[in-house]
Amino acid sequence: MKYKEISLDDIKSRPEQVRQDFSEERIDSLAKSISEVGQLQPIVVQKKDEHYLLVAGERRFRAVKKERKDKIAAVILEDDISPEKFRQIQLIENLQRQDLNPLERAISINKFIEANSLSKKDAAEKLGVARTTLTLWLNILEMKEKYQKEVLKEDSPITLSHLSLAHALSSKTGDPNKANQLLDAVIKHNLSRKECQAVIDLFYKYLHIPMEEAVSAVLLKRERLKMKDYWDDANKVKNRNPVRKLFRSFSNINDNLEEFMEEEGDIAEDDKEDLLDEFLYLYQIMGILIPDLKNKDLKSLLKNLKNKGN
Are the C-beta atoms of 211 and 181 separated by less than 8 Å? Predict the structure, then answer.
């Protein structure tokens, strides 16, 4: 390798360039930085006949050109570089600098794997990343274009972790539509990764539950936790409001129910009637405290449940 300044006019970009999306705003920012403090990192080129082929540093190259400079600092590789080796060098540099967006990164890694007939394990070793990380990066290629674009948005709730969970759900159920339903719910309700995992856990445990019901259960828990935090904060002022005490009692009931569902899941037949009686009694008391609960449809539902218990 040699290091020297070379003419910008003698440099050509290679057609196999890994990076395809070049933000003019980021290049302008880099050009300004180079103008103020100089070029801190050289580009990498390969000598080819009477010119040089750019191997790494496309953004630096474009930024220096914007500054209307004649020359640029470069490391010159004298040995011939195969297209596969070129892609590996570019990938490693961009991965280390975190310069590629998630879709560019996945496409480039996949091309590198196919061109070299590599397993994911071998590709991970050559690129210097963990195999699990590489698998996470590649999951985006298994998703519909709609969700690929979502990941690229700065304000989107969908992350690569969400895509990984959706991909796992699709693989386990053999139904890609389940992954689409889950990701649609993430977009619509701004589900966190933890909430997304909770939806999947419910779906795995109750295999016949519709996806929307699993999502609704998680959203209800989200609202309950908000209220619980509110009442806990209010309790810190040592206000002995009896409604707060009542709310904490209901909160404890909900916690116990969730714990039971996670550990047991089903209620023994002998216990169902007793539990139903307690629920109906609780409903009657709440109907007195909150008259709006006396909804006709709800009463009909409770009547049907009571008839089944008799």
Answer: yes
